[in-house]
Amino acid sequence: MSHLPPDVLRASAPLLTGFMVHWCLFSTLSVQTYLYYDAALPDSLQKKCLVYGVYLLESLQTGFVTYDAFTIFASGFGDVQSLTAVHFHWLTIPVMSAIVACISQFFYAYRVFVLSNRQKFAPSIIAIISIGSAVGGILTGYLAYRTGDASQLNTPTTSIAIGFWCGGAALCDILIAAFMTHYLAKHDTGFRHTQRLISKLIRLTVETGTLTAVGALLDLILFFAFPFQEVYMSVALWLPKLYANAMIMVINARLKIGVSGVEDRVHLMSTHSIRFTPSPGTPVDDGRFLQSPSPTREGVTDRKDLSMYDGTLEMKKMGDSEAV
């Protein structure tokens, strides 16, 4: 191994770090998806396709990433060019990351659309920026494939494409967090427990939006701060998993996970609900209609739960037998 350059650690460490974090986040995503499947939620076919489709896409990405890791650190061990070669990175990082991020952001855009009483301004801004970011990511993948060397991507054209990809994704995530917080905070139900749970949803929205925005910005900063190096790969390799985990975690926010004796159980609060929709008869996610007005304060106990369902907020009444 005497032919290895002294900076081989600088070339291999970001890749190894990115691979390990990627696999950890895929494990988390698998658990999140299993919880969604095990809860057997009464969701529309579109939402189920969204969850399982994203998981299948991420599983495909993990397969390619694992193949690249084997090529670099096993079959290609000792080959310096293998450390900087593009391999399948052109597909698994910019292209798949852009697709998953766009799907996630459109999911949030629809929720903003529902929470804003179907106003189109805020969702349209999110959609336009998200599409621009996705185009930048796909263009970055094409340029990386054509270059063939992951350490030689700091050209003006590629830098602009990466700026649109990561910068647009971060801006979109920040706007989503701001719009969701604004519209959620406008709902005042008058129920103390419900308002507490709305605050919890606001906190979850801000946290997930901030996390994905920081990830995209960190990838962008590392790319420009360390030109002609692969330091940015330590973040880029797991960025799609961050978006997928954040989206499915928000979908799973309806679930309550608890322990009854020695047996774990997951359940969804059911029956009586209060939905923040414009008016009875307004269609929601899968085309269903509210056929009756929301229940009043009378008869509602202090044991309530708030959940997000099909883009609408629901306050649900929990019986004693369902307590966690």
Word description of this protein:
By secondary structure, this protein is mainly alpha-helical. Helix content is 63%, strand content 8%. It is built from 9 helices and 5 strands. It has helices spanning 8-39, 45-75, 80-84, 89-115, 121-147, 156-185, 192-225, 233-236, 239-251; strands spanning 255-260, 263-268, 273-275, 304-309, 312-317. The strands form 2 sheets. The protein has a 3-stranded antiparallel beta sheet. Strands 1-2 form a two-stranded antiparallel ribbon. Helix 1 runs parallel beside helix 9 (239-251) and helix 4 packs parallel to helix 9. It is globular and about 65 Å long. Residues 259-324 have low confidence and may be disordered.
Give me a quick take on this structure:
The chain is mainly α and 324 residues long. It has helices at residues 8-39, 45-75, 80-84, 89-115, 121-147, 156-185, 192-225, 233-236, 239-251, and strands spanning 255-260, 263-268, 273-275, 304-309, 312-317. Helix content is 63%, strand content 8%.
